[in-house]
Design brief:
This protein has 464 residues and is mostly beta strands. It contains three helices and 35 strands. It has three domains: 150 residues, no CATH class; 181 residues, no CATH class; 46 residues, no CATH class. Helix content is 5%, strand content 38%. The strands form ten sheets. It has a six-stranded mixed β-sheet with strand order 28-27-26-23-22-35, covered by helices on one side. The two termini are 47 Å apart.
Length: 464
């Protein structure tokens, strides 16, 4: 994974620190309701207490001529310290034994390469793990007390996530130098992995190989940094996006109760007539698996077309709150229900082909997820669900409409969620062949900050 070459400037004048652009949400954060540990700026992981970094020291900047974006590296002033609750065993944190140079100037001449970036991997003692790469602008090894390694049982496996820097210029060694952000390998609701916010870099790493650094693990059985019920409502009121439907949308959302009240029928295998569904859905079959013996259909009378088109006035979002990344973030999944999913349109080059019945189905659930930092209560990112996939969009790249409320665009007929208006091709965008998804702003919308219902909150320690 190691190599030597330099990422450098052609002129010493280029070594001056870049003009930084700081992102902040459109409006200041409110004062959140009183709680336990939510938005306190620190989170106890058991033997470690971690802080959100707020101050940085400029170390190095890379600005290749073909790249309009400068890549800056900063040394964070504090990440973690041992908690006072640490039990008597090997210390939670310790200094590295040494450093291995991951990337460096080829001939080690600092004068020739004024302002180079040097990437160092801490060499941890047995039983410990580094959780990041150290960057300096000098060829001499950093001091051992610059960083700390973490005891291995307090760490978890992490993955290379988003590519931050790729440099494969002909002036470099035969293999490219790459820098990735990282995230925990296991990221389910019950998983303990905590993202440190550091990066991984290499000149020879291949996808699937283990990384030489880890992330942290939350071993505190009490997720004290999760928001309580009052704070959850405050978060939704403050951040709840406005969901815009296409101006030509025919199949609009409704509440689930409106769908039941207006004639939705429950069918079962071997029975030809449908059963009216109770407003609360109390007569629906239970269980965690689908045995395919039951299904829901639209009413058979003249209400069928009415129910297909939904009822925007009754529509609301259904919120499911759960911990993420070891309880250091809160995910608020917001689900929208549409009684009917309309037919798809196929795009082939410049031609659009209506697919009649293809793509149609009864009862369409779509969702987006707000990810909120439990350190501060800041909106971190939003996941936009799109058919069988989706995308995370960071807070700085969102479109906002009212204060800190972002925008969600639901595509025509299929209701997939997008962060921007436009035409999206589900297929090959290069060939221009695939299912067409049109998203645009209109007077058809639902404000999820006020029209929502909290249906589940997986924060057992707080009794919700």
């Amino acid at each position: 994974m190691f190599g030597c070459k330099c990422l450098y400037w052609n002129r010493l004048a280029d070594f001056s620190p870049p003009q930084l652009e700081y992102f902040s949400l459109p409006q200041p954060l409110p004062t959140w309701p009183q709680g336990q540990g939510f938005a306190s700026g620190r989170i106890n992981l058991g033997e470690l207490e971690v802080f959100k970094v707020t101050r940085f020291e400029f170390v190095w900047c890379h600005n290749p001529s073909q790249d309009k974006k400068k890549r800056s590296k900063y040394l964070n002033t504090e990440i973690a310290h041992a908690s006072s609750d640490a039990i008597a065993k090997l210390p939670a944190l310790c200094e590295p034994l040494d450093y291995i140079l991951v990337w460096c100037p080829e001939d080690w001449t600092e004068q020739r390469y004024g302002g180079c970036g040097y990437f160092w991997l801490p060499q941890a003692p047995e039983g410990y793990m580094p959780v990041g790469i150290l960057v300096t602008n000098k060829p001499s090894k950093p001091s051992l007390d610059e960083v700390r390694c973490v005891r291995a049982d307090l760490t978890d496996e992490c993955d290379a996530y988003r590519l931050l820097l790729l440099n494969s210029s002909s002036g470099y060694v035969n293999c490219s130098f790459q820098v990735w952000s990282t995230r925990p390998h296991c990221r389910g609701m019950m998983e303990k992995g905590v993202s440190v916010g550091t990066f991984f870099c290499s000149s020879s790493w291949s996808s699937g190989e283990d990384l030489s650094i880890g992330c942290l693990k939350n071993l505190n059985p009490n997720l004290h940094a999760m928001p309580n019920l009052d704070q959850i409502h405050a978060l939704i009121n403050h951040y709840g996006p406005t969901v815009f439907f296409h101006p030509e949308e025919v199949y609009l959302p409704s509440s689930v109760s409106w769908f039941f009240e207006n004639g939705a029928l429950l069918y079962r295998t071997g029975v030809t007539t449908g059963e009216t569904i109770d407003t609360e859905g109390s007569n629906l079959p239970g269980g965690e698996t689908n045995d395919r013996r039951f299904w829901i259909d639209l009413p058979c009378d003249n209400r069928r077309e009415i129910v297909k088109r939904g009822n925007l006035e009754s529509a609301k979002l259904y919120a499911h709150v759960k911990p993420a990344l070891g309880g250091t973030f809160t995910d608020i999944a917001m689900w929208v229900f549409c009684p009917f999913n309309g037919p798809a349109t196929l795009r082939v080059g410049v031609m659009n082909i209506a697919l009649s019945k293809i793509g149609e189905h009864i009862s369409d659930w779509e969702h987006f997820t707000l990810r909120i930092s439990n350190f501060t209560g800041e909106l971190w990112s939003i996941y936009y669900s799109q058919h069988s996939g989706g995308q995370w969009v960071d807070a700085y790249d969102l479109e906002y409409i009212d204060g800190n409320k972002a925008v969600v665009y639901a595509s025509k007929s299929g209701h997939a969620c997008y962060p921007r208006p436009g035409t999206y091709i589900q297929g090959s965008s290069k060939l221009g062949i695939g299912i067409r998804n049109d998203a645009a702003r209109s007077n058809l919308f639902v404000n999820s900050s006020t029209r929502y219902e909290l249906v589940a909150a997986n924060i057992w320690e707080m009794g919700l």
